[in-house]
Amino acid sequence: MNKTAFENVFYWEGKAQIPQEGKFIKLREDKTLEVPENPIIPFIEGDGIGPEITQAMLLIVNTAVEKTYNGSRKIYWVELLAGDKAEEKTRERLPQETLDLLKESIVGIKGPLGTPVGKGVRSINSALRRAFDYYSAVRPVYWMGQPTPIPNPERVNVVVFRENTDDVYAGIEFFSGSEEAKKAREFLIKEMGAKEEGFPEDVGITVKPMSEFKTKRHVRKALRYALENNRKVVAVIGKGNIMKATEGAFINWAFEVADEPEFKGRVITDPEAEPREGQVKLVKVITDQMLMQLVLKPEAYDVIIAQNLNGDYVSDLAAALIGGPGFVPSGNIGDGYALFESTHGTAWDIAGKGIANPLSLTLSGAMMLEYLGWKEAAEKIYDAVRRTLDSRIGTPDIANGFRKQEIEAKEVGTMEFAREIASRIE
Length: 426
Ligand code: NAI
Prior knowledge:
Oligomer: single chain
Number of strands: 18
Structural class: alpha/beta
CATH topology of the largest domain: Isopropylmalate Dehydrogenase
Number of helices: 13
Bound molecules: 1,4-dihydronicotinamide adenine dinucleotide
């Protein structure tokens, strides 16, 4: 595809091109970032619509940084390969070079990557998650003026922290009829006192591990975020009444974190109390109750702390309320290491047509700027996106949404939409 001529974007050519002018971000011992004025930020275009939305994101983020800092700060973007493009150029879906440079760069951004079904190919997304221990998936869900299925969508403004490394996604599974399932079943019945009626011979078993260490580091991240960003009500969710050893323990561990010296006095846990200036309130909410509350009273919560599976449900429901995953950014964040990404998939049905909605990746770029401490530039992006949507300009999915609500809208392609947004960055 036709690349926009950015002098600060260095595409892969036989290998990753590291510009002399750029500097790597450093990770301090306390896991905070030392960000130079000219950081090297790797990007992975991704498959399907990935290259198109990446171009749009680069234009908008570059414009915001330029307009905010007048050249005193500049990102040096370095393309890394993964997915189909990597396979085509290097015969590997996740080359070692990509892993090495993501490690050296600390912070990066990526478009969607497909997982070929039934070819025994493992998901690159989960390989990256494991390699860098991105233990919290962070999804801020807020409304920017796009068409939505609910009235008053401005009431939704919540950040979901989804634990990324524990829970049923750990992949410990014994299929019905397998030798492993038979063994596990016998062990549970003979040694662990499990009742036979719960474990008939044809049972399949998925294991749900949840640990104190992994839960607590995740909870600390969410509480720090809430305190730093003045988000008042933090809900930890789970079906602790049923799964006491896992989700129940998760909730209890969250409250133990609130009692640690770092948070004592700043995180209050009395459900009746009102948080004062500089304080946040931690409450527990049963997952099904939270799903209902999100629809009925979304303004009640600012941050939601969830396990992996519950976090998946809750973040998708929240995203749907404000118009779908096409409008929601995300960050996979560990101890300093972070990879920001669009939340939708590769959308092969529209790939190459120049009509994909670039907002999820663009807002992930803004979230990345915030993570670097470049908040002023991120704010300019939010403001410009809002004003573009207020002018009723959008990609076909957005324009169609407006029309369904009998609001006239101008339909534009991905890059034209990006240019409209960039032109509103002041
Ligand atoms: P999908 O998100 O790719 O597509 C679902 C529907 O939404 C399609 O009709 C598509 O055209 C539309 N859509 C998605 N993004 C859009 C955008 N930015 N603008 C306009 N329309 C958009 O979901 P699907 O089909 O379930 O997944 C396709 C592939 O993507 C799979 O291989 C899956 O594994 C992968 N995937 C990757 C993710 C990642 O890298 N983080 C996340 C989700 C899926």
